[in-house]
Write a structure and sequence with these properties.
With 372 residues, this protein is of the alpha/beta class. 34% of the residues lie in helices and 17% in strands. The chain is built from twelve helices and 13 strands. Strand 7, helix 6 and strand 8 form a beta-alpha-beta unit.
Length: 372
């Protein structure tokens, strides 16, 4: 089963501070992989859209308990995991649920962390990340009366008590790639005459590759002569490795580099040193950091993880959670999108990029989802 749900809109709220300017994001982080974050923790990230929960807060007798388990990127990644935490905290505020978080420090923590919530009878356990697919499936099979959801993956074979949550990262990647293609071909204040852009991938998994494939396709759509370089750091958390790849790509002529947090902090450092642009995955880093206070950031490929986490929890609260399938969010559902754009970019380039959205959502523009 595959379905899509519309997301509502709201203004950006809350600000996360990332390591690329002023240290790690967020003020709440468990000291070990099994220490729960207090449900009153302050938000560490936000997105530019989120649904408005329609359900009244649950009563004390019926309070829904939700456990969130991060992948190894951790709560201070400034993006993916911290957005999931934001969704949990939104659910606490809007739906009256009780939420707890376990932060995984290594792959070996996945099963124990997921199982801890299941053992304690939580109503919903949310795993954050593709790398947790097998661990979540193992635990979900053992606990048929507990509901499970996983962000960025699905279960094969389907599990009746578990739901997959996927995004069309290729669509937001395409928009940012198209804008990058326009920028690399123009004479702006940074960059070079070469028509080359770069993909600094983190770990080679399907969600990452969907981003990278979309970015490369978008750049080609802007100018068929553009070349896209490709490299993987094989880590989510080591900025030095991402910086090394970024410097290599810049040396080869790339002046716009796509990447993600937290490893991508190294890409930003390289761009700062070499006067290049960066494009960020998942979260609107320009908005978080005060816009043009981070001049090397061209834009972001948004992925509203907080919004869909809130929707998954709302489904449990409303007693309409559906296991056995996958829910997919793209541009049409406002699950992904184009982030804020540097003021150095001419408005007509932004308008050209946004004009492609109807062609993407209608299927007129077909975007690859894998790296060839």
């Amino acid at each position: 089963m595959q379905r899509t749900l519309p997301l509502g809109r709201r203004a950006l709220v809350g600000v996360a501070t990332m390591a690329l300017v002023a240290g790690c994001a967020g003020s709440t982080s468990p000291s070990t992989s099994t220490a729960a974050v207090p449900s009153s923790a302050a938000p560490v990230a936000s997105s530019s859209a989120a649904p408005s929960a329609s359900t009244a807060p649950a009563s004390a007798e019926t309070t829904i308990r939700v456990g969130l388990v991060t992948d190894v990127g951790g709560l201070n990644d400034g993006g993916f995991n911290s957005l999931a935490l934001k969704g949990l905290q939104d659910a606490e505020a809007q739906l009256g649920i009780e939420g707890d978080v376990l932060e995984s420090k290594a792959d070996a923590d996945y099963i124990p962390n997921i199982q801890k919530f299941a053992d304690e009878g939580y109503d919903l356990v949310i795993s954050v990340g593709f790398l947790m697919t097998d661990a979540t499936a193992q635990v979900a099979t053992r606990y048929p009366d507990v509901k499970f959801a996983i962000v960025d993956s699905a279960f094969d074979p389907p599990l009746p008590n578990a739901s997959g949550i996927l995004f069309k990262e290729q669509e937001s990647g395409f928009l940012t790639g198209y804008l990058a293609g326009l920028v690399t071909s123009a004479e702006l204040s940074r960059g070079n005459p070469e028509k080359i852009v770069g993909n600094v991938g983190l770990v080679k998994i399907p969600p990452v590759d969907r981003y990278l494939a979309g970015f490369a396709a978008g750049a080609k759509h802007a100018d068929p002569t553009i070349e896209t370089l490709l490299g993987y750091s094989n880590t989510f958390t080591d900025p030095a490795k991402c910086k090394e790849i970024a410097l290599q790509q810049i040396e080869q002529g790339a002046d716009v580099l796509f990447t993600g947090t937290p490893c991508g902090v190294g890409v930003y450092d390289a761009a700062l040193e070499e006067n290049a642009w960066t494009v960020w995955a998942d979260v609107d880093i320009r908005e978080q950091q005060g816009g043009d206070a981070v001049p090397q950031i061209l834009t972001s490929a948004l992925k509203r993880v907080d919004s869909v986490v809130l929707l998954a929890i709302e489904a449990v609260v409303e007693d309409n959670f559906e296991g056995g399938g996958v829910v997919t969010y793209g541009l049409a559902e406002e699950g992904v999108g184009l982030g804020s754009v540097s003021s150095e970019v001419p408005p007509d380039m932004v308008e050209q990029t946004e004009a492609l959205i109807p062609q993407v959502t209608s299927g007129e523009i077909e975007i690859p989802t894998t790296i060839e």
